[in-house]
Amino acid sequence: MPANMNTYKIAVLAGDGIGPEVMEEALRVLDAVEQKFAFRTERTACYVGGAAIDHCGKALPAETLAACEAADAILFGSVGGPKWDSLPPNERPERGALLPLRKHFSLYANLRPGICLPELLDASPVKNSLIPGGFDILCVRELTGGMYFGEPKFYGEREGETVALDTLFYKRSEVERIAHVAFQAAMGRSKRLCSVDKANVLASSVMWREVMNDIAPQYPEVQLTHMYVDNAAMQLVRNPQQFDVMVTENTFGDILTDEMAVICGSLGMLPSASLSNGSGECFFGLYEPSGGSAPDIAGQGIANPVAQILSMGMMLRYSCRETAAADAVDAAVRRVIAAGYRTGDLATGAPGEIRVGTRGMGDAIIAAL
Ligand code: IPM
Ligand code: MG
Q1: pLDDT at 281 (0 to 100)
Q2: Is 225 part of any domain?
Q3: In 3-state terms, what secondary structure has residue 161?
Q4: Catalytic entry in 8, 148, 219, 318
Q5: What does the pLDDT read at residue 349?
Q6: Could you tell me if 200 and 274 lie in one domain?
Q7: What is the rounded distance in angstroms from the CA atom of residue 315 to the CA atom of residue 304?
Q8: End of a domain among 244, 263, 282?
C-alpha cells in the first residue's frame, strides 16, 4: 500500500451475545470498503463484558483499556447476558465495562439516529397512516452526566430501613458542550432542534432549558423548541415526523432512544456514536449498535448485522473523516433494504422479501458496495 495512505487504529470490542457474529459482518464490510477507498485500518481485538469476565476476571481488563487508549476509535459490539446477571451490579458487564469506558474517554455526546425507511413501514408498530414515507430523527443524548454518574449514590440502611439514592447533577459547562453538539447537528440538517427536559419539576432541567436558550443566539438559523419529557414520549408515537434533532439529558435519552428505536421497525437497524471532543475534525468515539446483546438469538446466525455495520459507518464518518466511504456504507444498506433483503426481525411476509441470516445480510451489503 502507498506510504501516504491514511491508516486508522481501531480497537474491536465484540463482547457478548450476538456481538461477535454481527461484528464479523461489520469487519467483512469494512474489508470491502478498504478495497474501494484509499485508507486502511489496523484492528486490535479485545475482550470486554462477560467474555472479559470469563477470560480475565473483570468486565474491562487493563489490556482492553490500553488498546482503546492507543486507538483512533472503538468499535463496540454489545455486552451482557443471563450468565453474568447474578454478579454484583457494579461488576456486571454493562456497569463494569460500558459506563467506565464512557466516563474514561469523556464520551459525552451520544448520537442516535432513528431512521424509519419507507420500505420498513410495516415493521414499525406505529400505524402506517401516522408515518407516511417514514421519518428521520437524530437524538443527541448527554452521556456522561446526570443520574448515571451523579454523587452521592447510595444503597443501604438508614434510620432502621433500607434507602437508596441517586443524584441528578449537571454542571453548566456539561450542558453547554452538549448544546453545541446538538445545535451543530441541527445546522447540518433541517435546522430544527427540540430540547427535552422536565423543567416543570427538576432544578437540573430548569438550568438545562436556560442553557439551551442562552446558546441559541449563537445559531440564529436554528429554530429551538422545548418539550417536557413525558409529552415527548407521547409525541414520538403519535407524530414522530414532527421531530428532526432532539437533545436531552442522560436518563431521558436512554428511555426515549429505546422508544425511538422500536418505532423505526427494529432495534437491529440503529447505530450509535458516543463522541468526546476531537482534535480538528476527527472525534474520538465509541461506536455501537443501539440494540443489546440479544442472548435469546445469539449464536444462531440470525441476528440483524445492520446496526453494527452502520455503527462502523459512523466510525468512518466521525473518527476517520472518510466521508465518501461512510456515505457508501449507508447507501449500500439502503439499497439492500430496498431490494427486499430481510433478517427475521424485519420480515413481515410481504411478497418480494428475501429472507437472509446474519451472513446473508453481510454478503448482500458487500455486493451492494
Ligand atoms: C444504552 C444502554 C446502557 C445505558 C446500559 C447498557 C448501561 O441501555 O446504551 O442505552 O443505559 O446507557
Ligand atoms: Mg438504553
Answers
A1: 74
A2: yes
A3: strand
A4: 148
A5: 92
A6: no
A7: 19
A8: 263
Dig out the grid coordinates for 132 from the structure.
Answer: 407516511
Same domain assignment for residues 138 and 43: no
**SS3 at position 54:** helix
The number of the ligand nearest the C-alpha atom of 97 reads 1
CA atoms within 13 A on the CB side of 323: 2
Specify the ligand 1 atom closest to the Cα of 102.
Answer: 12
Instruction: Determine which residue's CA is closest to atom 12 belonging to ligand 1.
Output: 254
Is 219 in contact with 187 (CB distance < 8 Å)?
yes
Contact 249, 204 (CB under 8 A): yes
Residues 142-198 pLDDT 10s = 999 999 999 999 999 999 999 999 999 999 999 999 999 999 999 999 999 999 999
Burial class (CB in 10 A: 0-12, 13-18, 19+), 309: buried
**Cα-to-chain-centroid distance, residue 244:** 17
pLDDT band at 5 (very low <50, low <70, confident <90, very high): confident
- For 191, the 3-state DSSP assignment is coil
Residue given cell 492507543 in the structure block:
70
For 57-68, write each residue's pLDDT tens digit.
999 999 999 999
Q: Which residues contact 86 (CB under 8 A, 6 or more apart)?
A: none
pLDDT band of 277, cuts 50, 70, 90: confident
Question: Is residue 215 within a helix (H) or strand (E), and if so which, with residue range?
Answer: helix 203-215
Binding-site residues, ligand 1, Cβ < 6 A:
94, 98-99, 254
| Contact yes or no for 287/273 (Cβ under 8 A) | yes
> Cα 247 to chain center, whole Å?
14
Domain of 211 in residue numbering reads as 125-263
β 245-248/73-78 pair status: unpaired
pTM of the model: 0.96
- Segment 211-219 shows an average pLDDT of 98
